[in-house]
Design brief:
single chain, 4-stranded mixed sheet, two-stranded antiparallel ribbon, 21 helices
């Protein structure tokens, strides 16, 4: 049976302003500039910093006023009698420069004694273009050249062939209508492996090292290179895993000979394609969101100027809204008034969200600075206190999710370097004497122990755990392995050196 009744319930729902603030909180200073630029383009009621306009003479202003027809507040031209009298018929000959000699349109303000400085531009071939150019030098048939170009197209930026020869044979048949076999593809690949840079066209690291060693042996034969070729060809797995005792026993060589082989292999390039400047990594620059300075023993916090944009509501748009609001409006004017009001409200919301973002960022970073005061004063990582997001959330009376958004992808510049805000948060543990320390301090001590260990007999995780326990840090072996992986330290076997 159907019935109607009233029901009252609470529902939590984020307003558009709150959603906008949450999105602005999580973007860094560089992303904020892009977001503000996009908002200004989308909302004509929002204005930012405008470039300064040079002042003109009064005579020029009077001329501009006389020559420019007056307009009303909607941009429509107001026809004035004096303006009509000054109008004249347009004549295209008045604006034609066809009869002006070309020498009158040129100027030369330089003398023969002047020094000319030009910016040099580096122009070169890309990695793949360089390989194709070397392929064109070889005496190959058209069919072989097409196969070679296809093989070069399957070489990545590191210089390795990313597809098998069997797959290349099938690809050539289906996409290029070239019928060939594996042996022909292998022969063309051998030619490409003779190109520069040395080691290009290899299918794995072992083949890449062998190509480079064989070329060295042809250029200047030596016993060390010959032994290196034999070790890499026969005992590559043992060499990669640093099973040096097995290699010396099976190859019947001494420790000095193996050390000479290791030194020779270390001179080779494991990624020959990256030797060209076009394939090097681009530099990434960090723009800090905060700056902390030590002024006579007192810490001072400041926001990056990129976080303090000068935004305002357009005066013209506000005047237009006021004018439309006072008039009796028809349907079209009501639509226009609704559009203007919506854009003005949106601009005010955005400006308010930016201001709230500044206040939230400053309050959060100030709480972190006060909590880690000893560290920011000295720069000693051992002075870092254990800190989690909940601690800062309680200090600034905000939600943990808000603190997480604030600390995400944000950097702070200090007297000791520029750091990610997340790096100041770490778990804590108690030492034997009951003192609570940060895991970052433990990681620093772990790095020092590994750096000072004897490389011929590196310490295992159990030995590292024992040494830390002697220092008063009771940590399990499994935890040591986790910290070691986070620090990028390999296992003891891979740290071994001769």
């Amino acid at each position: 049976m159907l019935s109607q009744h009233l029901q009252l319930k609470l529902q939590q729902k984020l307003s558009p302003q709150q959603i906008l603030l949450m999105k602005l909180l999580q973007i860094p200073a560089v992303g904020l500039q892009q977001r503000i630029k996009q908002e200004i383009e989308d909302n004509p009621a929002l204005e930012g910093d405008a470039p300064e306009v040079e002042e003109q003479d009064q005579d020029q202003d009077q001329i501009a006023d006389e020559e420019t027809p007056e307009t009303d507040e909607y941009g429509e031209v107001v026809e004035l009698d004096n303006y009509k009298d000054e109008q004249k018929e347009f004549d295209v000959n008045d604006y034609s420069d066809d009869d002006i000699p070309s020498y009158k349109l040129k100027t030369n303000n330089y003398s023969p004694d002047d020094q000319h400085y030009e910016i040099p531009f580096v122009a070169g071939l890309s990695f793949h273009d360089l390989l194709i150019e070397q392929l064109g030098i070889r005496n190959l048939s058209e069919n072989q050249r097409q196969v070679g170009i296809y093989i070069i197209g399957n070489i990545d930026d590191s210089g390795y062939l990313v597809r098998s020869t069997d797959a290349i044979v099938d690809d050539l048949a289906f996409t290029q209508n070239i019928i060939t076999d594996k042996n022909k593809v292998e022969s063309i690949l051998k030619i490409i492996q003779e190109f520069d840079p040395s080691g290009v066209g290899a299918r794995n690291l072992q083949e890449c090292l062998l190509i480079q060693l064989q070329r060295k042996q042809l250029a200047s034969p030596s016993e060390v290179v010959a032994l290196s070729i034999r070790i890499i060809r026969r005992y590559f797995n043992e060499f990669a895993k640093k099973h040096y005792s097995k290699i010396m026993k099976r190859a019947e060589i001494s420790e000095e000979q193996l050390k000479a082989v290791i030194d020779k292999v270390l001179t080779l390039n494991p990624k020959p394609g990256n030797s060209l400047s076009e394939t090097t990594r681009t530099n990434h620059y960090i723009i800090p969101d905060f700056t902390i300075t030590n002024s006579n023993g007192k810490l001072e916090l400041s926001l990056n100027s990129w976080n303090n944009p000068d935004l305002r509501v357009s005066n013209d748009f506000s005047a237009m809204g006021t004018s439309l609001g006072k008039k009796k409006k028809n349907k079209e004017q009501r639509k226009a008034f609704s559009f203007v009001k919506q854009k003005i409200d949106s601009a005010k919301w955005f400006i308010e969200a930016i201001q709230q973002r500044q206040n939230t960022l400053y309050a959060t970073m100030n709480a972190i600075m006060e909590y880690q005061h000893d560290y920011f004063m000295t720069g000693d990582s051992t002075k870092l206190r254990p800190l989690i997001l909940k601690d800062i959330a309680e200090m600034v009376d905000l939600d943990i999710s808000t603190i997480s958004r604030v600390t995400n992808s944000k950097y702070v510049q200090t007297d000791f370097g520029t750091f990610l805000l997340k790096s100041f948060f770490s778990e804590g543990m108690e030492k034997d004497d009951g003192e609570e320390v940060s895991t970052r301090e433990i990681k620093g001590i772990l790095q020092e122990i590994v750096a000072e260990e004897e490389k011929k007999k590196p310490l295992t995780d159990e030995h590292l755990a024992g040494l830390l326990k002697e220092k008063g840090y009771p940590i399990a072996r499994r935890t040591i392995a986790k910290y070691r992986e986070q620090l990028g330290i390999p296992v003891a076997r891979l740290r071994k050196e001769l």
